[in-house]
Structure to design on (403 residues):
């Protein structure tokens, strides 16, 4: 239990980061009110990779078993050359080298399944109140409390502290940090999951293997893996648009998708007709900021450190945030002190992963001689060599006792 009387903490945002933060805060002994602007809770998107640092966080939050009921534990991560169809390198996720180095599994799951597990845990916790249809327009604070105002009514919500987990376009970040709009990478993703039985021919062999497949090519890549106990197969096609302009939405089109992948190997081209075209996802991030804490208000997840997806760490880092924040709220009587302790633990690590996600994207999308050298260097790696990625997959607080 906390070292002082329980605080009332408001969480803004009902996505993965917000629900995880609410759960961690309640498990630390505090009362939580979570507000979500949508009329009902839900998560959009497709598959999600949960490296061992994320499954470690889910274990601490008490929901790992629930997530594993629907997740897949892939045997390997495989990087392929999208042009030649040749394997570049792989990591063996069931080897003794993996299990000795990482205590928790590497999982792939559907975003909605992870969100549902966190939502169920929050719904069941007696210290958590969930409120939908509440769009936060402003946050004010004084020495005694913080107050949230909403677009839907004149109602305000008073709390001892506020966790801003309202995503990439965080209103609270704009109010508190004021660093403008997110940075567009000029890349766009088309993604979705389809029934695994629809995978045919060359693609069906990869689906049956349950491996995470990354097909790397010049200014484009394709990611594939099964989710929901293998019933669905997730596919994400990513490419850089030549037609991007900041004042137009007419870029990253289906026609560009076909054009960019036209030179890919047959297996990749065969996958394109089965990739969901219902929505395109422009890819954004921000430069790291040290400015996470503003009195009784703190940033978490994409509101604090939005990152490109190339290290598959966006949700993982939000989960790490939640656990670290829960620990800090457990250990420090005053919310301001707790927030400072949390930020001190998380800022440097999150910034490093933000920066390296950009760099890994550049490596993945090399062309010509750069791609040839990349393939030569990576092909010499052992499938049991985790040295390059272990710092990402090992949470900084892994050795600290659980809450």
């Amino acid at each position: 239990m906390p070292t002082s009387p329980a605080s009332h903490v408001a969480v803004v945002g009902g996505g993965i980061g917000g629900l995880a933060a609410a759960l961690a805060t309640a498990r630390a002994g505090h009362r939580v009110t979570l507000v979500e602007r949508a009329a009902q809770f839900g998560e959009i998107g497709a598959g999600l990779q949960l490296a061992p640092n994320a499954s470690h966080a889910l274990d601490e939050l008490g929901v790992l078993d629930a997530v594993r009921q629907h997740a897949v534990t892939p045997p390997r991560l495989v990087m392929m050359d999208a042009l030649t169809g040749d394997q570049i390198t792989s990591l063996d996720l069931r080897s003794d080298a993996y299990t000795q180095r990482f205590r928790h599994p590497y999982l792939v799951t559907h975003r909605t399944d992870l969100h549902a597990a966190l939502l169920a845990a929050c719904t069941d916790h007696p210290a958590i109140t969930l409120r939908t249809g509440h769009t936060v327009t402003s946050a004010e604070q004084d020495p005694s409390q913080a107050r949230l105002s909403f677009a839907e009514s004149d109602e305000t919500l008073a709390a001892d502290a506020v966790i801003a987990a309202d995503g990439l376009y965080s209103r609270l970040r704009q109010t508190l940090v004021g660093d403008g709009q997110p940075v567009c990478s000029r890349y766009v993703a088309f993604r979705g999951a389809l029934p695994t039985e629809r995978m045919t021919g060359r693609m069906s062999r990869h689906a049956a293997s349950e491996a995470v497949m990354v097909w790397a090519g010049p200014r484009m890549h394709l990611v594939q893996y099964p989710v929901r106990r293998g019933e669905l197969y997730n596919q994400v096609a990513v490419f850089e648009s030549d037609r991007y302009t900041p004042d137009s939405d007419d870029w990253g089109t289906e026609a560009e998708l076909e054009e960019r992948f036209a030179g890919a190997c047959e297996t990749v081209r065969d996958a394109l007709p089965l990739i969901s075209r219902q929505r395109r996802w422009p890819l954004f991030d921000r430069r790291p900021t040290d400015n996470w804490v503003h009195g009784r208000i703190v940033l978490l997840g994409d509101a604090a450190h939005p990152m490109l997806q190339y290290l598959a760490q966006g949700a993982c880092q939000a989960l790490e945030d939640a656990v670290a924040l829960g620990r800090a709220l457990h250990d420090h009587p005053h919310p301001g002190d707790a927030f400072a302790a949390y930020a001190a633990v998380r800022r440097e690590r999150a910034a490093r992963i933000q920066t390296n996600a950009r760099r890994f994207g550049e490596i993945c999308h090399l062309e010509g001689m750069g791609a040839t050298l990349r393939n030569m260097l990576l092909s010499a790696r052992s499938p049991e060599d985790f040295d390059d990625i272990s710092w990402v997959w090992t949470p900084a607080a892994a050795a600290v006792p659980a809450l």
Q: What stands out?
A: The longest helix spans residues 335-364. The chain has a mean pLDDT of 94. The chain is about 35% helix and 25% strand.
